[in-house]
Amino acid sequence: MTDPRTTVVVITHNRRPELLRTLAELAALPEEPPVTVTDNGSTDGTAEAVARRHPDVRLLRPGRNLGAVGRNLAVRDVRTPYVAFCDDDSWWSPGSLAGAADLLDRHPALGSVTARIIVEPDGTDDPIVRELRESPVPGPPWLPGPALGSFLAAATVLRTDAFRTAGGFNPRLWLGGEEELLAADLAADGWWLTYADHLTIHHQASAVRDATLRRMHGIRNTLWFTWLRRPARPALRRTLNLARTVPRDTASLRAFAEAAAALPWVLRERRVLPYEVESRLRLLEPAQRTSTARRYTG
């Protein structure tokens, strides 16, 4: 079942045990996908362990933590039509990469396919799965699943050329909710995003993570995306909603302060989305207000 259509890209930072487990799972896939790892400046021997145990993996060592931009670095040299992302604590199920490639082959206006996320070791659905299944975004009749307004990088296969044309992940956002801006730009370029329930990826959250920092970046990046792409009234509405609903703590305060301090470049780079894309985002707002799975809340 070797499938040459998709390259898997993984970014990592100081999570050697988790990454080695992920690479072992990817190496066992029947698709035998090429794998690229960007080691974001790890100091725990990650790069050396990958080179020793997985010599077939393409290993990039930028020498510093690039965050999500480590994926951009990897995609520069991808030669397959599709690129699949996963994190160092997640891995694709057998057949899912081929299934996603089949959907992208079949539907030329489809830009990305997001899989169902199974939380390990319990084998249960991630809370976000229900929201993906019940997405209120309307899509064309040919779309093979629910239309999405965004995607989760750790569970998505994208067209390589579409990713490059849209500019990849914005380096200013670094990491934490960085997908929303790219997803909107993909939609503005005419691509549709979908969810495929029959495809799966497994996620066993690493214990080596700073949840508070990730939440802070998630709030900040949500604000930046809102100010960069949404019209004035929806941007104000979403900003006020975030101010009312995020936890009342130092992390939230820092997130708003960092976001506000960046207003000069945000206004300079602001580019409002086309009406048809903005109209889809407005349909997502009620779900965002009631979501229990949004990453910026916990």
TrEMBL record:
Its pathway is: Cell wall biogenesis; cell wall polysaccharide biosynthesis
Question: Which key words tag this protein in UniProt?
Answer: Glycosyltransferase, Transferase
Q: Name one GO molecular function term.
A: glycosyltransferase activity
Answer yes or no on keyword Kinase.
no
In what residue span(s) does the Glycosyltransferase 2-like domain sit?
A: 7-130
Domain of life of the organism encoding this protein: Bacteria
- Tell me which SUPFAM superfamilies the record gives: Nucleotide-diphospho-sugar transferases (SSF53448)
Q: What class of enzyme is it?
A: transferase
Which Pfam families did the record assign? Glycos_transf_2
Per the UniProt entry, the Enzyme Commission number(s) are 2.4.-.-
Q: Which family does it belong to?
A: Belongs to the glycosyltransferase 2 family.
- Annotated protein name in UniProt: Glycosyltransferase family 2 protein
Origin species: Streptomyces atrovirens
